[in-house]
Design brief:
The protein is α/β, with parallel strands linked by helices. It is about 45% helix and about 15% strand. Helix 3 links the parallel strand 1 and strand 2. The longest helix is centred in the N-terminal third of the chain and has 16 residues.
Length: about 350
């Protein structure tokens, strides 16, 4: 065991030293990936924010991976990523040819006792494309147009499965803050929730990427058809300075702490992850290729043209965020667990 740990430490030191040539490590990885296909399992249907980012990133990522493998996008709907995380943990070859891109709070949901046969810490985190700037939206005909009004007036809100961010956050707000969101669960992603809101089946939707709103729902903004209720995470968005962040809605220290935990997935964001059994040398090369793709001038020009935000974070830094979430004190976790199964609805 000691010999293995020493070898791993040496590998990490080697990869992390910019003055040491990467060729010795990359060459056998190039031999492995040459002629192969990497599948990225996106936990949402096509046209949502995660899918948009995956398809934008994939060709640039492929160019920087030694061996230049083909990358295909596989939309694996189910639990907003729980199915995909379980799949790459237990079914795929565990060789670095299956990656995942799923909901930022898939890890938080698992920490809080949510479903799925996977271990967030054992997954090999490759890197974050961008933090998750998501917003809850309300239709212009809804009887409540703000969170304060929703404390007095019930509105129906479309959300995804229990244990996902849209469901947990809305349930927590009902319980901790006193909102009267009537949660309509079971939607597979933001496209379905958006369509339900547009059709008048619900008054609001529990969450959609702000980038996706700007790129696919411009008519909502220009026609004043929908407005943001609140943003996920710890900060307000520059585009929406008057829309409260999740922690702004807290009414005391306890609610602020719990909302901070539930909203913590925004920092993990749209993060690419590899199978837990991926060999360390391939994880290292994939992480390097990912960061090179994130800084590729052509990629940055392409994302700018499409109004997509890029806020990269290295795989090792994402891995630390995941470990920190898993290490949350038990008392706090137990208090927040009630929202995974739907308490506060």
């Amino acid at each position: 065991m000691t010999r293995t740990l020493c070898a791993l430490a040496a590998l990490i030191a080697f990869v992390g030293t910019p003055t040491v040539p990467f060729t010795a490590l990359a060459q056998p990885v190039a031999d492995f990936y040459r002629g192969k296909t990497i599948s990225i399992y996106v936990g949402f249907p096509p046209a949502g924010g995660y899918d948009i980012y995956a398809r934008m990133m994939a060709p640039y990522f492929a160019r920087h991976i030694p061996g230049n493998p083909t990358i295909t996008i596989m939309n694996m709907v189910g639990g907003s990523g729980v199915r995909a995380a379980s799949y790459i943990s237990n079914v795929t070859a565990q060789d670095g040819t299956s990656l995942g891109l799923f909901l930022d709070t898939t890890t938080i949901g698992k920490v809080l006792g949510g479903p799925g046969d996977f271990d967030p810490v054992k997954l090999q985190w490759i890197g974050r494309i961008a933090s998750t700037d998501s917003v809850a939206m309300v239709w212009h005909t809804a009887p409540a147009q703000t969170v304060e009004e929703a404390k007095r007036i019930e509105i129906a809100m479309a959300v995804t499965q229990p244990g996902t961010s849209t469901s947990m956050i809305a349930a927590a707000l009902n319980d901790l803050v006193g909102t009267k969101f009537k949660l309509v669960r079971g939607y597979q992603g933001s496209p379905g929730m958006a369509l339900a809101m547009e059709r008048g089946e619900v008054h609001a939707m529990g969450g959609m990427s702000w980038d996706a709103v700007k790129t696919t729902k411009q008519d909502w903004l220009t026609g004043k058809k929908a407005r943001a209720l609140y943003t996920f995470g710890m900060r307000r968005l520059a585009d929406l300075p008057d829309v409260p962040a999740l922690v702004d809605l807290a009414i005391d220290d306890q609610s602020r702490t719990i909302l901070s935990l539930i909203g913590g997935g925004a920092e993990v964001g749209r993060a690419l992850v590899a199978e837990p059994g991926t060999p360390p040398e391939r994880t290292a090369v994939l992480r390097k290729a990912f960061m090179e793709a994130m800084n590729d001038p052509a990629f940055l020009a392409d994302t700018k043209k499409r109004n997509l935000i890029v806020e990269p974070l290295s795989g090792s830094e994402v891995q630390k965020l995941i470990a920190s979430a898993v290490a949350t004190p038990a008392a706090l976790v137990n208090r927040a667990k009630r929202y995974v199964g739907g308490a506060g609805k």
